[in-house]
Amino acid sequence: MSVEIMHRPESPNGDGDTDKQTLYMLGGVALVVFGAGLILSNPNIRKYLGQLGVANIASAALPDIEKYFRLRAM
Hints:
This protein has 74 residues and is mainly α. It has one domain. Helix content is 78%, strand content 0%. The chain is flat, with a radius of gyration of 22 Å.
């Protein structure tokens, strides 16, 4: 019975493993987001990132990104 479940036929359009691969990819993305949240919840890491000025880099890049999207929308 379990062997029959594991060897199910491919879908009609021929993308047999696509569902499984999509599930693995989304699971990996969820683990990355969860791990980043755990790291950034540490007060020592927050203090270290504050000293590096990561927020300053992001705020300096924001006008360039907005300009890019305006040009692209034209």
